[in-house]
UniProtKB/TrEMBL annotation:
Highest taxon listed in the record's lineage: Bacteria
GO BP term, example: negative regulation of DNA-templated transcription
Family, per entry: Belongs to the FrmR/RcnR family.
GO molecular function: DNA binding; metal ion binding
Protein name per Swiss-Prot or TrEMBL: Metal resistance protein
Length: 91
């Protein structure tokens, strides 16, 4: 298996570590008997952080793989690839 290290990976790891801390806080909130609204808000923050990390990872990986596969091509031959790369931003 080859190493796939992308420029976005350190930021993704930071985001996931932050989410990990929030998740620990949520567990503590249950133990402390905090109101459901507070817990739901924190769970939403954890969910968004993980979702954004996943989105960034997928977008960066697809972008990197497309560039590696397609390589240097004339602009007129890259249009569909460039459109696809723009499209994946909406995942």
């Amino acid at each position: 298996m080859t190493d796939h290290i992308h420029a976005s990976h350190p930021d993704i790891v930071k985001r996931l570590k932050r989410a990990e801390g929030h998740l620990r806080s949520v567990i503590d909130m249950f133990a402390a008997g905090r109101p459901c609204l507070d817990i739901a808000q924190q769970l939403h923050a954890v969910e968004k952080a993980v979702s954004q990390a996943k989105r960034t990872l997928i977008q960066d990986h697809l972008d990197h793989c497309l560039e590696e596969t397609v390589g240097a091509r004339p602009k007129e031959r890259r249009q569909s690839i460039d459109e696809f790369k723009d499209l994946i931003k909406y995942l």
